[in-house]
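quick q for whoever's on today - can somebody do inverse folding on this one?? i tried earlier but teh output was garbage lol. tokens:
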């Protein structure tokens, strides 16, 4: 989440069907009752998804990419069986969904981790932002906390008790902070740039807003060992975590050089591609879910 959490945006969900022809005779029954595996994403227009479906077809697996415009929709769609997998979120986002909705969606593979960046159409350096200026951040709980940590690292705000992956606007020490912070739906932070000093923009929306990733005037460090909860993942229903076809689809994503190059291209080279062991992802999810539940 971008992969920032990922990000990256769109208001109503729409289906973007990628034509495929080959069916995989040995795969398990899917949500649609046929042999096409439906994968929910945010940003189906990214070119690497076409490369991915071609790579899957070459392995005898038919894939349909289902595009969602809003981060809030792919997890409920997966829970309800409307899709078979999704790939749009990091562990923190999934943990918040599972706890809030009393569900048990689970990671079955890592994709990448994306730095979360601060952008501005008014300033070229974060130090130029003036006291009292307003900065926009995504309003979903997981990305909001991460965005606030970025602003704190940039010395624009100070969070009470140093901040955490659960920080929210109430945790900002306004007397010690340089800027005011407003939280917007993730797809609106980029479009808010003309009206604010700067905005934290999820990766999914950076290029769609006519920006380049190198335009970021501040960002977090995706290589930090504490960044594991922000690794983007393929998610499945718990009963499907050992599905061999789904595991093969994760492998195709991780091993296809064309797909991996495409992910890097779309991220402007900012993505850190990963093959984190599933056991580590599950352990991280369990920890974040426990901490999340304690916050509720």
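ok took a stab at it. sequence:
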């Amino acid at each position: 989440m971008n992969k920032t959490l990922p990000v990256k945006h769109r208001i109503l969900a729409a289906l973007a069907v990628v034509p495929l022809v080959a069916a995989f005779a040995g795969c398990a029954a899917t949500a649609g009752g046929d042999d096409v595996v439906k994968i929910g994403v945010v940003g189906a227009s990214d070119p690497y998804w076409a490369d991915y479906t071609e790579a899957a077809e070459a392995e005898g697996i038919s894939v349909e990419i289902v595009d969602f415009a809003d981060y809030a929709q792919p997890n409920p769609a997966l829970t309800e069986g409307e899709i078979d997998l999704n790939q749009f979120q990091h562990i923190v986002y999934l943990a918040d969904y599972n706890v809030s909705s009393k569900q048990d969606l689970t990671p079955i593979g890592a994709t990448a981790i994306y730095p979360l960046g601060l952008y501005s159409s008014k300033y070229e350096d974060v130090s130029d932002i003036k006291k009292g200026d307003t900065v926009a951040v995504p309003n979903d709980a997981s990305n909001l906390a991460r965005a606030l940590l970025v602003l704190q690292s940039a010395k624009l705000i100070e969070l009470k008790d140093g901040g955490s992956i659960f920080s929210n606007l109430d945790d900002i020490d306004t007397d010690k902070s340089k800027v005011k912070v407003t939280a917007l739906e993730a797809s609106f932070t980029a479009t808010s740039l003309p009206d604010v000093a700067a905005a934290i923009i999820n990766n999914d929306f950076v290029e769609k807003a006519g920006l380049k990733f190198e335009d970021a005037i501040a960002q977090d460090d995706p290589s930090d060992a504490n960044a594991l909860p922000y690794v983007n993942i393929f998610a499945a229903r718990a009963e499907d975590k050992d599905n061999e076809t789904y595991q093969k689809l994760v492998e195709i994503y991780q091993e296809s050089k064309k797909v991996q190059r495409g992910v890097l291209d779309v991220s402007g080279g900012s993505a850190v591609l990963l093959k984190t062991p599933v056991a580590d992802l599950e352990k991280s999810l369990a920890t974040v879910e426990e901490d999340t539940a304690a916050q509720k």
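fwiw Confidence is low (pLDDT under 50) at residues 2-33. also The domain at 117-219 is CATH 3.40.190.10 (D-Maltodextrin-Binding Protein; domain 2). so keep that in mind when u check it
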